[in-house]
Amino acid sequence: MTLQQLAGVALPVIQAPMAGAQAGAMTIAVSNAGALGSLPCAMLGVEAMRSELVAIKVQTAKPFNVNFFCHAQPPPDAKREAAWRASLAAYYQAFGIDANSIPTGPGRLPFSSEAANILAEFKPAVVSFHFGLPSTELLALVKSWGSKIFASATTVDEAHWLEARGVDAIIAQGLEAGGHRGNFLSEDLTTQVGTLALLPQILRAVRLPVIAAGGIADAKGVAAALALGAAGVQIGTAYLLCPEATINAVHRAALKSETARHTALTNVFTGRPARGIVNRIMRELGPMNTAAPAFPLATSAIAPLRAKAESQGSDDFSPLWCGQNASGCKEVPAAQLTRELAGV
Ligand SMILES: Cc1cc2nc3c(=O)[nH]c(=O)nc-3n(C[C@H](O)[C@H](O)[C@H](O)COP(=O)(O)O)c2cc1C
User: Fold this and answer.
1) 124: buried, middle or exposed (CB in 10 Å: 19+, 13-18, 0-12)?
2) What is the pLDDT of residues 206-240, one digit of tens each?
3) Looking at residue 286, what DSSP letter applies?
4) CA 19 to ligand 1 center in whole angstroms
5) Is the pTM of this model over 0.85?
6) What one-character DSSP code corresponds to residue 215?
7) Which of 240, 246, 308 has the alpha carbon at shortest distance from 275?
8) Ligand 1 pocket: which residues have CB below 6 Å?
9) Which of 37, 239, 293, 317 satisfies CB 3.0 to 4.6 Å to 306 for a cystine?
C-alpha cells in the first residue's frame, strides 16, 4: 500500500515532524500542497498542542500527522547532574552563570493520556511515534478513533517489534537523518545504518508499508526511495530553511554555511544521540559523552549557556539539528518545496 492510499494524500511525501523547528504553519502549508504535513508535539504543552491543532483544523481540511516521543521519563539523578554541571563549570564561569541557579526541567515530554484526550477531539489521519510506542492502552485508544499509526525503526529488530504491535506503517530512519535517532531497542550505535542499507532490509523483513527517511533532499532521491519499494518518504532537513520553520538565526546561518557539511551524532544537548552540525560544545565535550544525563534531562544544564551565547550571536552551545544532506535546504515556501520534492 502506498502512503497516498494509507493517509489519503496526493503526494508520496511526509514533511518530517521536527520538534522545536516548526509548528502548525508548516503542517498546514505542506498538507494543503498535497503531501502529509506533520505537527511535532514533544516540546509542546497540552494547551499549546490544542491551539496548534485548532489552527490546523481551521486552515486545512487535508490529512495531517501528529507526532510524539515515547521515551520513559528517567528518575532525576542528582549525582550525575552535579558531575555533568561540573564539566560545564568553565563555561558557566565565562558567562557569569551561577550553576546552582539553573532549574532542572523535563526537557521533552512523552505521549500521555492528557495528550491522547486532546487528540481525540481532532482525530488526525496519522499519528506517528519516535522511540518506540506508548502503552498498549494508549495505543489502542489512538487506534479507536481511526488514526493510522506510523512509527520509526532504525533496525530490522525494531521493525519486527513495531509490526508485532500493530502499527500501520514503519518509518525506516537511516543514519543520515537529522535530529534524534529513533533507536529504542538498543543503544549500540554500531547497529545504526544508512537509508540505502536499512530500507531494503526492513522491506524484506515486514509486510507493512515502509516510509524511507534520512538524507533524501530532492526529487531524484524521492524517486530512488520509491523505486526501492518505499511506500513514501519522510523529509526533514530540506524544510529547515523554509519561512515556516521556526529555527533561530544562528541555526539558519549554520545551515546556509559550509559548516553544514560537518554533522555528527551527539548526546550533549539532550542525553540521546541526535544529528546536528558540529559546533564548539560538541567538539569540546563530545560529540558523545558518557557523563551526559539521561534523555531528556541533559537539556537543562546547557540551556542557560545556549541562551547567553545566542544573545551574542554565537551558536557555540546550540543544537544545530541537521541531517547529512543539507543540499536540499531552500529558502522557499514549504508548499513549493513539497511540490519540487514530489516532482510535480
Ligand atoms: C530539526 C529536526 C527535528 C526533528 N524532530 C523530530 C521529532 O520531533 N519527531 C520525530 O519523529 N522525528 C524528528 N526528527 C527526525 C525526522 O523525523 C526524520 O527522521 C529526519 O528528518 C529525516 O532525515 P533528513 O533530516 O535527512 O530529511 C527531526 C529532524 C530534524 C532535522
Assistant:
1) buried
2) 999 999 999 999 999 999 999 999 999 999 999 99
3) -
4) 8
5) yes
6) S
7) 240
8) 16-19, 21, 40, 42, 67, 130, 152, 173, 176-179, 213-216, 234-237, 321, 323, 325
9) 317
